[in-house]
């Protein structure tokens, strides 16, 4: 099935089998290995990307259903050599250890910041319910999400998908 | 400048950039030209005889490159997966080490036991062909529980081990302990289960292998915490590849927690297959496959008794534990419930007589091995539960009974009755700090407030000690280790004065690229940004034993400090020559070699340049270049200790336990990077909370099927499950390593299960509840409350 998808501002045309998951499409076809796969039951959130601006689990999304869609992955969140305010907040707040959950966490957090006018720690914890992290105990991730949300509200340059 | 990036600074992590931007390089990201994909066919039965395997259909499927079974490995002389740490049991008996073939031969012994590997051009094709492999099984009765495995007539996992006992081990003085019990004014008893867990690092395991025929060289990329040990075990014992013809790379690894510190069948399978096929072979574990193939953790059943005098002083401790080894021995399996458990039973107390017996038994379950804390959380759980039981029974305050029995500050080094000698620690100081921070004394008011809302509130306390910094080779080999546990570090000074460090330890979340840079920054007086840290590649790093047992800072860091000292020694010689001074007159400080009493000096960079551009250089007495390697073998374990307090509120209507507060005070020795140490403790504590409240690996007792085989059934702690963790450090430096570091990776997981359960039991103890098994799930807690006849309305 032929699809046209804009991935990280680049137009991609591909012939995809009906069963191809967006996570495989990104990782195997486009080499965008920043999107991770941590489970096979749509429980971990390591694979979260943005489709038309909203966070989705790419392991539970079929590529063939995305004709005409805009997809942003962790690789496209900031220009090379620079960091998105949410990425910066994760760095500053030590919101990552092994880094495996990080791309999904950040993509999810950016969406949270975008749709949550007055973010609180409780709201952030609830939002991240679909993102597992085995390393950090979530504490510094929550701190990062709050700091990143605040920075996004004041940063002009924050890109939206 | 160096102060800002040296030891003690909360330097932001250097490794973050690639992870934040999606440019990490994990094994599943490795892609090679002409690569094939592998799928493992696994046993659906817990215990069965393999009557036959038919791969003929699978071989004919589209895209299939090869299908191999155990018979192919046997024909090629492939060995079994070795156990690296057997122990000696009672009366000198040896650990039983049955063969562990990478693909099952004759019998399968647990659900998930690999029986064939299918290799195809694509993953989809490999999966389809795997479905076409037909295995004819004669299903046998299975045994999953350790107590069941010991019953007469129980299914026998290995035909030549009729009692299923792998090793019957003991430590301590049985007679002295018996005498202590005969003098006791009171004896407290507890029976408990330490529930089985699945480690579940977020990155599933993966392995990619390549064989370059022209060089006769194999390369294996694997998600390992110890690539050098994989190289040694797999190369030497399984595949018989000479060490110089095998390279093992563990690039970015997404968490380990012990799960990735074993040599696994799949590593050998892809490497062997790559050699046979002359093409790269890649295998990536799926999560549900990980539940069926990663080694599991814990799984003990224990009985313990504590003898006390009339003042609540501990006289003796007797422990009987049955530990699950699973269907085969994993790399370190037998060491975990023995050395890493029994030797820790003194805790922070002066108990004079201790005797512990451990039966490690085979069952039809996944192999059990180290999982974060490994043996020490089990020891802490048992001891600290029992101390609480004793306090309650004797009517002594729980903090007071601990204080009364605590090793006094002036008693270090302290020799325990179970072999270990603690070098340092201040558990009493940790306890005071923890009680204060947690508001222990004002708890009664908070309990009252909860009760007014119809909730049951409890507070729990633990004081603990652990042995880490694995390990002094001399002691470890006496305890059964089949190898040294030293560490290596190389400091390579470039002509321009920047430094590349090669470490034998492996970082998979711990932030070594940052902390090792801080050690170098401190020692050589250069900014941390001028240091690059390399690890995880056996062709780049000469040797190393990897990362586990909170050893990286204590053992690896010490090797690194030693290597920097060698650099300074050689640099001093070069500087003495450059400055025309005597070596004894040169001092090195803040990156500068100076002649004492003068203003003559040379910078580290100038000396580095001279070492590589030896125009005017004492070649007769000194080699050019500036690169030093050090090997460090510790003289003792390190002993982090501390006190943790948890506070919970239980809804008696639902049995839901809400963790309200968690305070950790830990003595991890010198802190290299406070931010990273705190992060390690946050994560460790939450993993322990997971065991205490959520996680449970459950097998069906009759069929041996794994019931908790995915994230749908195995409850991982999530962000909204846990409160913020309040972390305080209370450091006394380790006395036997130069940096004074002890280790921080496991302390959280060691202390928190007992702390949380002590709080849960405290909330319920007025109902006559003496113990709650883990996880303290709503159904379990609700049943206890209901059985006690408690109804919220009557409270
Ligand atoms: S990979 Fe786990 S939710 Fe998508
Ligand atoms: S940082 Fe390792 S899983 Fe989150």
Give the count of helical stretches of chain A: 5
CATH architecture classification of the largest domain in chain B: 2-Layer Sandwich
The CATH class of the largest domain in chain A, by name, is Alpha Beta
How do the strands of the widest beta sheet of chain B line up side by side? 3-5-1-13-10-11-12
- Strand percentage of chain B lies at 15-25%
By CATH, the superfamily of the largest domain in chain A comes out as Beta-grasp domain
List low-confidence stretches of chain B: none
The helix-and-strand class of chain B reads alpha+beta
Which sheet architecture does the biggest sheet of chain A show? 5 strands, mixed
Overall pLDDT metric of chain B: 97
Number of domains of chain B: 4
Shape of chain A: globular
**CATH T-level topology of the largest domain in chain A:** Ubiquitin-like (UB roll)
What compounds are bound to the protein? FE2/S2 (inorganic) cluster
Rg calculated over all Cα atoms of chain B = 28 Å
Helix content of chain B: 25-40%
Instruction: Give the tally of β-strands of chain B.
Output: 30
Number of domain modules of chain A: 2
* Structure summary, number of beta strands of chain A: 5
- In percent, how helical is the residue content of chain A? 25-40%
* Number of helical stretches of at least 4 residues of chain B: 22
Explain the overall architecture.
Chain A folds into 2 domains: 2-76, Ubiquitin-like (UB roll); 85-155, [2Fe-2S]-binding domain (DNA polymerase, domain 1). In chain A, 33% of the residues lie in helices and 14% in strands. Chain A has helices at residues 22-29, 85-92, 102-115, 121-127, 139-154, and strands at residues 2-7, 10-15, 48-51, 54-57, 70-72. The radius of gyration of chain A is 15 Å and the shape is globular. Chain B has 4 domains: 2-22 and 486-632, 2-Layer Sandwich (Aldehyde Oxidoreductase, domain 4), CATH 3.30.365; 35-85 and 96-134 and 202-255 and 260-291, Aldehyde Oxidoreductase, domain 3 (Alpha-Beta Complex), CATH 3.90.1170; 143-198 and 296-406, Aldehyde Oxidoreductase, domain 4 (2-Layer Sandwich), CATH 3.30.365.10; 420-469 and 637-795, 2-Layer Sandwich (Aldehyde Oxidoreductase, domain 4), CATH 3.30.365.10. In chain B, strands 3-5-1-13-10-11-12 form a 7-stranded mixed β-sheet, with helices on both faces. Chain B has 22 helices and 30 strands. The chains are: A alpha+beta (161), B alpha+beta (795). At the A-B interface, helix 2, helix 3, helix 4 and helix 5 of A face helix 2 and helix 20 of B.
């Amino acid at each position: 099935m032929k699809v046209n998808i804009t991935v990280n501002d680049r137009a991609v045309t591909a012939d995809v089998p009906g069963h191809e998951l967006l996570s495989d499409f990104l990782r195997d076809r486009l080499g965008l290995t920043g999107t991770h796969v941590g489970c096979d039951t749509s429980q971990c959130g390591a694979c979260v990307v943005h489709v038309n601006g909203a966070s989705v689990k790419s392991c539970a999304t079929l590529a063939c259903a995305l004709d005409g869609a805009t997809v942003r992955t962790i690789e496209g969140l900031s220009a090379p050599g620079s960091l998105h305010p949410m990425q910066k907040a994760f760095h500053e707040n030590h919101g990552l250890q092994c880094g495996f959950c990080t791309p999904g966490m950040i993509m999810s957090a950016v969406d949270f910041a975008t749709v949550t006018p007055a973010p609180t720690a409780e709201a952030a914890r609830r939002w991240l319910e679909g993102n597992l992290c085995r390393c950090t105990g979530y504490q510094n991730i929550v701190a990062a999400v709050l700091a990143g949300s605040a920075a996004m509200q004041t940063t002009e340059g924050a890109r939206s998908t | 400048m160096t102060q800002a990036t040296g030891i003690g600074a909360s330097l932001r992590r250097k490794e973050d950039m690639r992870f934040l931007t999606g440019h990490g390089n994990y094994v599943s990201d490795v892609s090679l030209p002409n690569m094939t994909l592998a799928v493992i066919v696994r046993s659906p039965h817990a215990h069965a005889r393999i009557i036959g395997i038919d791969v003929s259909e699978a071989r004919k499927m589209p895209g299939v490159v090869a299908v191999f079974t155990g018979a192919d490995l046997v024909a090629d002389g492939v060995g079994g997966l070795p156990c690296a740490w057997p122990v000696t049991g009672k009366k000198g008996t040896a650990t039983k080490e049955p063969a562990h073939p990478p693909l099952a031969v004759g019998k399968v012994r647990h659900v998930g036991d690999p029986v064939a590997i299918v290799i195809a051009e694509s993953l989809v094709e490999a999966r389809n062909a795997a479905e076409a492999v037909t295995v004819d099984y004669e299903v046998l009765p299975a045994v999953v529980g350790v107590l069941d495995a010991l019953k007469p007539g129980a299914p026998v996992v290995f035909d030549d081990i009729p009692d299923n006992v792998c090793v019957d081990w003991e430590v301590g003085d049985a007679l002295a302990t018996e005498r202590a019990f005969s003098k006791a004014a009171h004896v407290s008893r507890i029976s408990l289960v330490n529930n089985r867990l699945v480690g579940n690092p977020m990155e599933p395991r993966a392995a990619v292998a390549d064989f370059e025929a022209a060089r006769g060289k194999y390369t294996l990329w694997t998600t390992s915490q110890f690539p050098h040990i994989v190289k040694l075990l797999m190369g030497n014992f399984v595949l018989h590849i000479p060490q110089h013809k095998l390279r093992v790379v563990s690039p970015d690894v997404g968490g380990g927690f012990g799960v990735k510190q074993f040599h696994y069948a799949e590593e050998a399978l892809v490497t062997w297959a790559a050699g046979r096929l002359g093409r790269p072979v890649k295998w990536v574990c799926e999560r549900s496959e990980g539940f069926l193939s990663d080694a599991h953790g814990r799984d003990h059943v224990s009985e313990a008794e504590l003898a006390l005098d009339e003042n609540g002083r501990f006289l003796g401790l007797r422990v009987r534990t049955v530990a699950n080894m699973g269907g085969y021995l994993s790399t370190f399996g037998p060491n975990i419930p023995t050395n890493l458990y029994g030797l820790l039973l003194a805790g922070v107390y002066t108990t004079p007589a201790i005797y512990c017996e451990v039966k490690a038994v085979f069952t039809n379950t996944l192999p059990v091995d180290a999982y974060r804390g490994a043996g020490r959380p089990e020891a802490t759980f048992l001891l600290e539960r029992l101390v609480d039981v004793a306090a309650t029974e004797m009517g002594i305050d729980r903090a007071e009974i601990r204080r009364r029995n605590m090793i006094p500050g002036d008693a270090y080094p302290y020799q325990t009755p179970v072999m270990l000698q603690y070098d340092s620690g201040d558990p009493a100081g940790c306890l005071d700090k923890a009680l204060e921070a947690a508001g222990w004394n004002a708890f009664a008011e908070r309990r009252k407030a909860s009760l007014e809302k119809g909730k049951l509130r409890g507070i729990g306390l633990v004081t603990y000690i652990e042995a880490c910094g694995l390990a002094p080779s001399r002691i470890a080999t006496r305890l059964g280790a089949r190898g040294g546990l030293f560490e290596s570090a190389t400091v390579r000074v470039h002509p321009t004065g920047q430094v590349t460090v090669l470490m034998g330890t492996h970082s998979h979340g711990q932030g070594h690229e940052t902390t090792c840079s801080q050690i170098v920054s401190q020692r050589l007086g250069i900014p941390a940004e001028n240091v690059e840290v390399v690890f995880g590649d056996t062709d780049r790093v000469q040797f190393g034993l990897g990362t586990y047992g909170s050893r990286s800072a204590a053992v690896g860091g010490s090797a690194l400090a030693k290597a920097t000292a060698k650099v300074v020694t050689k640099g001093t010689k070069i500087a003495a020559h450059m400055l025309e001074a005597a070596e004894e007159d040169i001092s090195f400080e803040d990156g500068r070699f100076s002649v004492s009493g003068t203003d003559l000096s040379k910078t580290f960079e100038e000396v580095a340049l001279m070492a590589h551009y030896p125009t005017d250089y004492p070649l007769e007495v000194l080699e050019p270049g500036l690169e030093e390697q050090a090997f460090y073998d510790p003289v003792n374990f390190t002993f982090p200790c501390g006190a943790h307090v948890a506070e919970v509120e239980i809804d008696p209507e639902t049995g839901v336990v809400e963790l309200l507060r968690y305070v950790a005070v830990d003595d991890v020795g010198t802190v290299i990077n406070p931010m990273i140490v705190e992060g390690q403790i946050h994560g460790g504590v939450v993993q322990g909370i997971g065991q205490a409240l959520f996680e449970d690996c459950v097998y069906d007792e009759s069929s041996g099927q794994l019931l908790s085989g995915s994230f749908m059934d195995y409850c991982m702690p999530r962000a909204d499950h846990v409160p913020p963790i309040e972390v305080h450090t209370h450091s006394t430096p380790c006395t036997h390593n130069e940096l004074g570091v002890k280790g921080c990776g496991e302390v959280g997981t060691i202390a928190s299960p007992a702390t949380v359960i002590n709080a849960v039991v405290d909330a319920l103890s007025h109902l006559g509840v003496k113990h709650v098994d883990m996880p303290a799930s709503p159904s379990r807690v609700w049943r206890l409350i209901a059985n006690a006849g408690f109804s919220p309305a009557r409270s």
